[in-house]
């Protein structure tokens, strides 16, 4: 009896192990898909921004080595810089580094880094098709309950039920209603991008400190590097910190612009390292505003509105960058004309 009883207990235990191990397989599959998607999207974002960031960081060097109008390449292989106005306290280039003021960026990348562009355009489809998991193969029940509960419609009107991703079926009236609901995110993000790109491409060149061991070009590169480091950190911090009120970030970024513009005009900051800290802080604000804006939109839109809402919000950065370029160009010329 004892032996039979003992064997009878072992059988249910083995069955219990089998039943508990079976649900682990889908869980492990979901975790594997989650990490593959996280790595895949991270690499896609990194490659997508790489060439753009390199062009922004190299803007000062490109303009400083610009040859005469007869040079078709616009790039001077000589290491000797040619200052535009040596009498100016800003040590200005002939053209501002503002986004709309350096059309030779594309030529620079096409001539000096064709291998980089080719590899980035090819390492992209490979990552997309080999790393990312198709939505059909993922368990729709694995969605975070907290995210699901936080979703609220941007508009209060009732609309007909549509399949997810069917934004093209929206009427013009529905699109306009959704767009008006997005203005609470679009306007702050436009201000954030306007302020930070006015600083980066309009003021960085003019924040020149002569009492350091760094050359003007080196100072500009450090500014860009610290800004991008701040953006990278804050864009990767969504799981640690989520911000609901984007207008607060916009206000703080505009204060950064006002402070640095005042320093350009009055030169009251005694050390370049204070500017380094401000620029790092600027990057943290810019990255946080971007990632939290689109995260909030994704949470607060219905399935049938989400695709259109995300696409419509993409005008924010383009509009902010364009406005900053338009205003930074005349400001550059005015300040560089001062003795």
Automatic annotation (TrEMBL):
Gene Ontology biological process: lysosomal lumen acidification
Membrane topology, as annotated: Multi-pass membrane protein
Taxonomic superkingdom: Eukaryota
Residue segments, region Disordered: 1-28
This protein's record includes keyword Cytoplasm: no
Keyword NADP: no
Subcellular location: Endomembrane system
Keywords from the UniProt entry: Membrane, Transmembrane, Transmembrane helix, Transport
Gene Ontology CC, one term: endomembrane system
Segments passing through the bilayer: 39-59, 182-200, 245-266, 272-291, 311-331
Recorded family membership: Belongs to the battenin family.
Protein name as it appears in the record: CLN3 lysosomal/endosomal transmembrane protein, battenin
Organism: Sciurus vulgaris
């Amino acid at each position: 009896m004892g032996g039979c009883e003992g064997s009878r207990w072992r059988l249910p235990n083995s069955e219990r192990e089998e039943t508990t191990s079976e649900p682990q397989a889908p869980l492990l599959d979901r975790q594997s898909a989650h990490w593959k998607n996280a790595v895949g999207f991270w690499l896609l974002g990194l490659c997508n921004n790489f060439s753009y960031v390199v062009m922004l960081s190299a803007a000062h060097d490109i303009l400083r080595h610009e040859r005469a109008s007869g040079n078709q390449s616009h790039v001077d292989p000589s290491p000797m810089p040619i200052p535009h106005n040596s009498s100016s306290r800003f040590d200005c280039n002939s053209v501002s580094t503002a986004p709309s003021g350096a059309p030779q960026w594309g030529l620079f990348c096409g001539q000096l880094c064709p291998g980089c562009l080719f590899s980035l355009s090819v390492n992209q489809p490979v990552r997309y098709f080999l790393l990312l998991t198709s939505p059909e193969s993922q368990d729709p029940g694995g969605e975070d309950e907290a995210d699901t509960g936080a979703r609220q419609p941007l508009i209060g009107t009732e609309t007909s039920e549509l399949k997810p991703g069917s934004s093209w079926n929206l009427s013009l009236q529905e699109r306009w209603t959704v767009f008006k609901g997005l203005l609470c995110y679009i306007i702050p993000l436009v201000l954030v991008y306007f302020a930070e790109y006015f600083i980066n491409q309009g003021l960085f060149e003019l924040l020149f400190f002569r009492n350091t061991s760094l050359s003007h070009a080196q100072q500009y590169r450090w500014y860009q590097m610290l800004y991008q480091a701040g953006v990278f950190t804050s864009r990767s911090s969504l799981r640690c910190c989520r911000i609901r009120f984007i207008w607060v970030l916009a206000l703080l970024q505009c204060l950064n612009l006002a402070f640095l513009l005042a320093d350009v005009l009055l030169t009251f900051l005694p050390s370049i390292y204070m500017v380094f800290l401000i620029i790092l802080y600027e990057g943290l604000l810019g990255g946080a505003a971007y990632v939290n804006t689109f995260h909030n939109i994704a949470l607060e839109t219905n399935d049938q509105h989400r695709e259109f809402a995300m696409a419509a919000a993409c005008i924010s950065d383009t509009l902010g960058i364009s406005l900053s370029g338009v205003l930074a160009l005349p400001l550059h010329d005015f300040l560089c004309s001062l003795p």
